[in-house]
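Take a record:
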Amino acid sequence: MHDEHTLFGFLVLGGAQAGLSWSTILRKREAYRKAFGGFDPERVARYTERRILSLLNDPGIVRNALKVRCAVRNAQAWLDLREAVGSVDAHLWQFVRGEPIVNRWRARRDVPARTKESDAMSKDLKERGFTFVGSTICYAFMQSVGMVNDHTRDCFTHER
């Protein structure tokens, strides 16, 4: 996946998911898309305090002030990163050398929560001002956008 709005969307959803189940966040995905301007980092970066307070009253999203402010801060950091490196997509994919990592796990219990690649991504993003981007969140992001295939060998989607 190489669309910057989609990548930014998964970053927002990953931050929202911290401490919650993915099923909770996935049920709220359309509300997040609406609340966060179609996951357009340029729009979200301009959110005012008034807009943030409005989002904290939106029952369609997780109404956690830290997580909502994180999305706005990360949009600003996203634009700064784009200015610095040219392509956020290329920058993020460089952590997997531009190609998806295809693992061949036997069982779900074998899938790690983080890797050296997610550690490196987390460190880089934190240094660039992103928040809610710990290594575990980065690894989930990498899985969700196709940078890592962690489907077990017996999963019907593994080969896809």
